[in-house]
Please model this.
Amino acid sequence: MLGLASFRAQRQLTGEAKPPRLPLDLVQEFVRAGHGELDTVQRLLKEHPGLLNTSHDWGGGDFETALEGAGHVGDRAVAEYLIGQGARANIFVLTMLGRTVEVKALLAAFPNLLRSKGPHGLTLLHHAQRGGGPAMPLLDHLMALGLSEVRLPMP
Model:
């Protein structure tokens, strides 16, 4: 429990009070909007800046942020907007965006990420497919590394 004690001590030293939780319906709306509704994402984030890195718990350990929603549906505009606002990108979103240098570096440093699953159990191959042309070099690279499961596009 050293980690928890350290966290509490840090809060006491800085005098930070933990803000209240964001309403579940607001978090759900923001994550849903991340799946392709840039105007709604921008409006909600302006009204509630704390939404930027919130995640929705779909159950069973399946958590998703608005940025991850944009990643798995291939919405480059939403993803780039959120990252530009400081959202925490991960290997799945970077794959969809076709960020070959960054993804290859992460895979070289942490090879087990190759077979990791993102929100809803979606793979790196899925994200590379959703990224279209800019992500095709990564799709080829991932397949050359041994990934063979290619999901059909989502409806």
Notes: Residues 2-14 form the longest helix (13 residues). Strands lie at 55-57, 63-65.
